[in-house]
Structures are given as structure tokens and as C-alpha cells.
Write a structure and sequence with these properties.
The structure is a single chain. By secondary structure, the chain is mainly α. The chain folds into 2 domains: about 5-75, Winged helix-like DNA-binding domain superfamily/Winged helix DNA-binding domain (Arc Repressor Mutant, subunit A, Orthogonal Bundle); about 95-245, GntR ligand-binding domain-like (Four Helix Bundle (Hemerythrin (Met), subunit A)), CATH 1.20.120. Helix content is about 70%, strand content about 5%. It has a 3-stranded antiparallel beta sheet. A hairpin with a 3-residue loop joins strand 2 (about 60-65) and strand 3. Helix 2 crosses helix 3 and helix 5 packs antiparallel against helix 8 (about 165-175). The longest helix has 25 residues, at about 95-120.
Length: about 250
């Protein structure tokens, strides 16, 4: 088996194991089937199952107990952000509660980050943000997807807070959203509106206007969450932020 095939089979084994845990609602301390049983069930080699379990062990989801078997160390809902990033990369959908929690966490961390950015930003930070917005604008005008550029801008905005832990906390929250972010930014309406928000973000940071900056973060993130939820339900994306106008932040 070639290396790419083995890697693909290993990823499939990780995905199928997580799906098995979800489907059977396994909780901390529950026993998983043996390597051989998982191999037969998933139609992959035992080495691929072993590779998958090594990944889950590293994420502190599973553990091997000598002469006892494979057990769930932590329930999926208690796992760390790295586990959620892997689930997203495997294209495993999150339930609405998880998506809501991600949205709330982003608001909490980005609101504090932008307040700090207003107080601590340097001229170099502003130049970097303006450079990113200019590139963003060029891609919007060229009708190109800006999913990656959006992440880069938000992390640069967080970096202007001069707090590396905030940036490291926000990074997996953005990585979790990779799959839906590509689809979300396929809309020209979303791209243009997002560009306008980014331009306003830079203006508020330049003016050191913490109150306006914090309100914009909440409006920006909440609106994106509503639109992503609409996409998941098969509805059309809202084309304005009107539903958030007048809302208490």
C-alpha cells in the first residue's frame, strides 16, 4: 500500500472510530471493540486502526489498558479543541450547540482582543492590518474566495492585542470552521459585507475606539453564525445585518 493510500485509510479509520463513539453515545470509561473488531467493522487494515487509535490516544480520547482493552478516556463533548479541529478536518458535522458555543467563544475572545488591540496596537500592527485589507479588497473585486484571507485578518487583529495566548486560543476556533468557511465565502454578498466590516475594524483600532470595536465584533460574529446556521438548514443566506440592528450587545 502506498504512503498516500495508507494515510487516507488511517484518516478514514479515525473518522469511523469517532462516528462509532458518537453513534453509540459512548461515555468516559466505556470499552471500545478490539483492534481486530474495528478493522473488520470499518473494512481497513489493523495497522490503520492502530494508527487511528494512536491519534485518539494523543488527543486523550482513548487509552489502552493492558490485558483489558481500549477504553474511552474522555467523552467527545469533554475533549479539547484539538479534537474538534480533527473532527472538522474529517468533515464530521458539529451539532448546533457546538456551533453556538464556538460563536460565543469567538465573541468572548475577539471582543477582549480588539479592546486590547485598541489600547496596545503599534504602527506596525496597523500597517499589517491595512495591507491585509488591501489584499482582501483585491480578491473581492476579482470575485475570489476570501476564506483564508479572513482567518489571516482576524488572527492579525488578535495579534495586535500583544497577547499570544489569545491568538493561540482563537486559532483552533478558526481551524474548526475550515469546511463551512469555504462555502460561506463563496457568496459575493458575504464577501463585500465582510470587507466593509474589516475596513471598519481597522478604523476603530486606529481610532482606539474600544466601544465601537467591541460592538462590531459581536455584530460580525453573531451575523456569521446566523448565516452558517441558515446554510446548514438549506435556507438562503441573509443579505444584510438588519436582524442585528437595534439589538442590545
Amino acid at each position: 500500500m502506498s504512503a498516500p493510500q495508507q494515510a487516507s485509510e488511517g484518516s478514514r479509520a479515525v473518522k469511523r472510530t469517532i462516528e462509532f463513539i458518537r453513534h453509540h453515545r459512548l461515555q468516559k470509561g466505556d470499552r471500545l471493540p478490539s483492534e481486530r473488531e474495528l478493522s473488520d467493522r470499518f473494512g481497513v487494515t489493523r495497522s490503520s486502526v492502530r494508527e487511528a487509535l494512536a491519534v485518539l490516544d494523543a488527543l486523550r480520547l482513548t487509552e489502552r489498558r493492558p490485558k483489558s482493552g481500549i477504553f474511552l478516556r474522555n467523552a467527545l463533548e469533554d475533549s479539547g479543541l484539538d479534537s474538534l479541529v480533527i473532527q472538522a478536518n474529517l468533515d464530521l458535522p458539529f451539532d448546533e450547540r457546538t456551533m453556538r458555543d464556538v460563536s460565543e467563544a469567538r465573541v468572548i475572545f475577539e471582543t477582549h482582543a480588539i479592546r486590547l488591540a485598541c489600547a496596545r496596537r503599534t504602527d506596525a500592527d496597523l500597517n499589517r492590518l491595512r495591507e491585509l485589507v488591501a489584499n482582501y479588497s483585491s480578491r473581492v473585486q476579482a470575485e475570489l474566495n476570501v476564506a483564508n484571507e479572513d482567518v489571516e485578518f482576524h488572527l492579525a487583529m488578535a495579534a495586535a492585542s500583544q497577547n499570544a495566548i489569545i491568538v493561540r486560543t482563537l486559532t483552533p476556533l478558526f481551524l474548526m470552521s475550515f469546511q463551512w468557511r469555504q462555502k460561506y465565502f463563496s457568496s459575493p454578498v458575504v464577501r463585500r459585507r465582510s470587507l466593509a466590516d474589516h475596513q471598519e475594524f481597522v478604523a476603530t483600532i486606529a481610532d482606539r475606539d474600544e466601544t465601537r470595536a467591541a460592538a462590531l465584533v459581536q455584530k460580525h460574529v453573531h451575523s456569521a453564525f446566523d448565516e452558517v446556521r441558515a446554510m446548514a438548514e438549506g435556507n438562503e443566506q441573509p443579505e444584510s445585518h438588519n436582524q442585528w440592528e437595534g439589538r442590545e450587545e
